[in-house]
Amino acid sequence: MKRISATSTLGLAALALAWAGAAGAAETIKIGVNEPLTGAVAASGNYVTDGARIAADEINAKGGLLGKKVELVIDDNKSNPTEAVAVAEKLIVRDKVPVMMGAWSSTYTLAVMPKLMEYGVPMVVETSSSGKITVSGNPWIFRISPTSEMEARAFSGLADKFGIKKADFLVVNNDWGRGAGAAFAKMLKGKGIAVGVTETMDAGAQDLSAQLAKIKASGADTVFLTTGVEQITLVLKQAKALGIKARIITTGGSSAPNQLIAQAGSAANGSYHILFFAPWFPQSAPNPGVAQHFVDEWNKRGLNFAGLTEGFRGYDGIMTIAAGIRAAGKAEPDAIRKALWGVHVKGVNGNISFIKQGPAGKESGQNVPNVYVVEIKGGKVILPKL
């Protein structure tokens, strides 16, 4: 059995006292934001951060939290797990944030999680989908995004409507991509659908011709693609150049279809995208008033419409944290953690609350989000007729 030394215990106690003192004296309530603002998935991280700013501004316009203004402490994890850990420690130790949101990629989030345990600080996970995140026994994690298993389960009913007979996979070689590929393959096999090749690619890879050649030779009618929007653009263009006829379905909700239309052009036509918010159709959201308000505010700020499918995550994440702080009645880490279990937030994606996942006594919080499928047809985003 691992023992905690007296020194470690005193260190945690000192840190808790520092937070308590900082919370009492501070003129603002700080919320850490750990996102990829540069690097391979920078577009997505910046969109999430834009959504977070909208939420903070809205909270402050209504009087803030507990009589204080919300201050987002935003830091760049540079699309790198090592940097994500450094950012988390900096936010906790130097900036004294009592709670944070992050860290986009499953790989970054998994890397950060030991620091949350070490310092006892909760984090609302806005994007990451790896199943490992909420079953590893980390009680400081509260995820509002779906797991890959949830996403695959939600898509299961559509697999028959698509008429899928055989599927291949092209996934980014990290926890997110591999986890999504495994979850969707398991779902398809359970329905008696053949699974062909699974190809991986590094997050920064530009030439995917070798992987796509193997997929073309496989002869599947469908390719499930999991990666960031920048790489999805490359895959669509290169698949068209190679004459691949299989339908392409992206997973993970990070495809930003409007950006694909702008950057991939006609190569995006005929592709399908699993999303967790469809901003073209806010009236179809469970909370249409909230969804329309967010879209209107995003547009009023002149932000890229393509970013709405990621930006809502930041908005919902900060609104969830704010609800936890209000319920806690103080901006202290353990109080916020306990309060998050009871929050009920009307989010852009839908209603947010947490179920327990993981080992008894060390459960993480997991929301059950909504899932949408859209199609790009004729350079426009539509709801497919299935």
Question: What is the topology?
Answer:
Layout: H1 6-25, E1 28-35, H2 42-61, E2 69-76, H3 81-93, E3 100-102, H4 106-119, E4 123-125, E5 141-143, H5 148-162, E6 166-172, H6 175-190, E7 194-201, H7 209-218, E8 222-226, H8 229-241, E9 247-250, H9 257-264, E10 272-275, H10 288-300, H11 308-328, H12 333-340, E11 345-346, E12 351-352, E13 355-357, E14 364-366, E15 372-377, E16 380-382
Parallel strand pairs: 1-2, 1-3, 3-4, 4-5, 5-14, 6-7, 6-8, 8-9, 9-10
Antiparallel strand pairs: 10-15, 11-12, 13-14, 15-16
Helix pairs in contact: 2-11, 3-4, 5-6, 8-9, 11-12
Structure write-up:
The structure is a single chain. This protein has 386 residues and is an alpha/beta fold. It has two domains: 6-146 and 290-366, Rossmann fold (3-Layer(aba) Sandwich); 149-275, Response regulator (Rossmann fold). 44% of the residues lie in helices and 19% in strands. It has a seven-stranded mixed sheet with strand order 2-1-3-4-5-14-13, sandwiched between helices. A seven-stranded mixed sheet has the order 7-6-8-9-10-15-16, with helices on both faces. Strands 11-12 form a two-stranded antiparallel sheet. A hairpin with a 6-residue loop joins strand 13 (355-357) and strand 14 (364-366). The longest helix is centred in the C-terminal third of the chain and has 21 residues, at 308-328.
